[in-house]
Amino acid sequence: MTFFIAMFVFFMMFIFKYIDDFVGKGLGVGILSELFFYFSLTTIPMALPLAILLSSLMTFGNLGEHFELTAMKSAGLSLQKIMFPLFILTTIISISAFYFSNNILPYTNLKAGSLLYDVRESKPALLFKDGAFNNSIEGFSIRVGKKEKDGKTLKDILIYDHRAMQGNTIVLAAESGTMNQTEDRMFLVLNLKNGVSYKDIINEGTENTKHPLIRDKFEERTIRFDLSQFKMSRTDETLFKNNAQMMNLSQLNDFVDSVKIKMEKRKAEFGKQLQQSYYSRSSNIINKKDSSQKVFSFDSLPKETKLNAIEIATNIARSAKAYTESIVSEYDADIFSINKYNIEWHRKFTLSIACVVLFFIGAPLGAIIRKGGLGMPMIVSIVFFLIFHILSITGEKLAKEGEMPPYQGMWLATIILLPIGIYLTYKATSDSNLFNIDSYIQPIKNLFTKKKEG
């Protein structure tokens, strides 16, 4: 139950984030269903740790509230033994989560990412508003005075045909008409009634400002507009396969290894390229062994020659600097890319281990709080999950910026929360009242009392 609640929350976050990309696109039920299905699957890695935290807290809170923990402890069972079966279940869930993250999630991200890209790139649906010009159809500008409630009947229609790229030379006006789409939705059919068309005939090469005009009255006329440009086209999914979120562990390792090999090759070629392209003349002069070649002192050269030499040397130095900066920029980009792919590599493990860590927070905390239901457990779960999420985001950002290695940034939340889970398990095992302030103040009072007596 808590798992589907968490999935629903994260799914609604996705809806609110991308709602502007869906509205007005005329997407069919099939496209939306496919998109929502894939994105609901992408929420599983985040929803699962929260679900385990909340469900373990509720379970042990209910057991504590109904004194069932007390009955089991009085029968000789320790809290660790009570938690052990659920720990085994959590471990199985954690392993399954890792399998999902490594094998299923990359495929899901590929499908969801490519489909979302296509939805974003698709044109808005063709909608006519009363009294406003619509320029969505290429080459035409259409104004509808009023659209009836049936959505098909139009009044006071005005159409400008700009396909000739000569301004408003072709104009159609009609009192009324109906609008329909073909069954394959590839064409829009307008049946105009009681109208007139105007066409200016422009004779090129003449300076006469008066142009002949063709006016044609009609009782009924049908115009077909091509709507293929509004149909969402699917992009080749192979274009997205190099994204880090769409790779499994082996693919991430291969990519990182290839980037490292490229970096080492670039390092080896940098010095050679620098010397051959910019310092070859200097090296030839310095290493010249032909004693018959006379080398002049710089001070003995004429002023004009000195200035030319300085200008040439300055240009060479600037070119060498620009080349070096470009190599450094490429090197930094490769380091950033490696960090990004290493982050995804560690993410597949951290989200799985988070299930176990949050279980060791939720189970003992529920035994201490002794409150079941969705009230207090929900609040406590949200607090701890926010701490976990903030630490995860902070560590990931620091890792991306190169402030710390990816393995440290991605495991930051686990390293901080694991001792808290161990401490809570210890406090719950010893039946200590975690939220009793006197239990923390009393040892300090005893310490001062002993000092006074001493």
Describe, in plain words, how this protein is organized in 3D.
The structure is a single chain. The protein is α+β, with helices and mostly antiparallel strands and 454 residues long. Among the domains are: 122 residues, no CATH class; 98 residues, no CATH class; 87 residues. It is built from twelve helices and six strands. It has a six-stranded antiparallel beta sheet, with no helix packed on it. Strand 1 and strand 2 form a beta hairpin. Helix 3 packs parallel to helix 8, helix 8 runs parallel beside helix 11 and helix 9 runs antiparallel to helix 11. The longest helix is centred in the C-terminal third of the chain and has 67 residues. The two termini are 59 Å apart.
Structural class: alpha+beta
How do the strands of the widest beta sheet line up side by side?
A: 1-2-3-4-5-6
What is the rounded Rg? 36 Å
Query: DSSP helix count?
Result: 12
Average residue pLDDT? 79
Distance between the termini: 59 Å
Element order, helices and strands?
Answer: HHHHHEEEEEEHHHHHHH
The rough form would be described as: flat
Largest sheet: 6 strands, antiparallel
What is the number of strand segments?
A: 6
Query: Uncertain regions: pLDDT < 50 for 5+ in a row?
Result: 285-291
Give the DSSP E fraction (strand runs of 2 or more residues).
Answer: 5-15%
Helix content estimate? 55-70%
Give a concise summary.
The protein is of the alpha+beta class and 454 residues long. The protein has helices at residues 2-22, 29-42, 44-65, 68-74, 79-121, 249-278, 280-286, 303-369, 376-400, 406-410, 412-429, 438-453, and strands spanning 133-134, 140-147, 153-161, 170-181, 187-200, 213-226.
